[in-house]
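Revision sheet: structure tokens.
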Amino acid sequence: MTVEPGTGAWVVLPTYNEIENLPAIAPAILAALPGSSLLVVDDSSPDGTGELADRMASADPRIHVLHRPAKQGLGRAYIDGFRHALDAGAQIVLQMDADWSHDPAYLPGMVAALAGGPGQPNPAGADLVIGSRYVRGGGVRNWGILRRLVSRGGSVFARTVLRLSAHDLTGGFKAWRRAALAALPWSSLHSGGYVFQIETTFRASRAGARVVELPIVFVDRRLGASKMSRRIIFEALAVVLRLRWGELRGRPGRD
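Predicted:
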């Protein structure tokens, strides 16, 4: 799928203390996906990321900034960003990290997979494309063994419990078709990091979305500090069990 001006492709980029990464990642995204818009969703970063984003937006009309009053969880940042993009007319919404873990060079391939056609994972197209570390051709660089076990183990656990076909359920590099994204139950989604990624794929899959995975190589952040914590990990495990339990009871909501 060629992204031409006016086709409504938006990249949602949550930031918190990413002042070292934003000056390079933003133009790289726009260069990889000409004709797209970039939405920086900043959670009042104390390092001035939001103010820098404003200056970049003043210089480039393709860059937009959504300021949030405080850090409220990665999931809530994405939800606010998704809503903003959809309200602006986005037909394609992509999500990614600002720390270079997700290479912008993969963006065109993800958009093409949404469109489908010969040579694509699903010739009929997809509703959700996941940039996957855990399919053939994918991988991770610069992670220790513990981080690898946590991420891979979390995906295996969620895939098994929730009976999903996707292999990478904890990653946040995704491309959405408008209809599939708009159909998510925004008010009932959990806001954590890993759990938000798992739950959005779960909800989309249960709603009948066509989900495909494209291999990516995930590279640990170049600059800044990781925002991973044990709380995020345990929250994800607990929510996966609650989602399955709710489904078994015929109540696939937050409880």
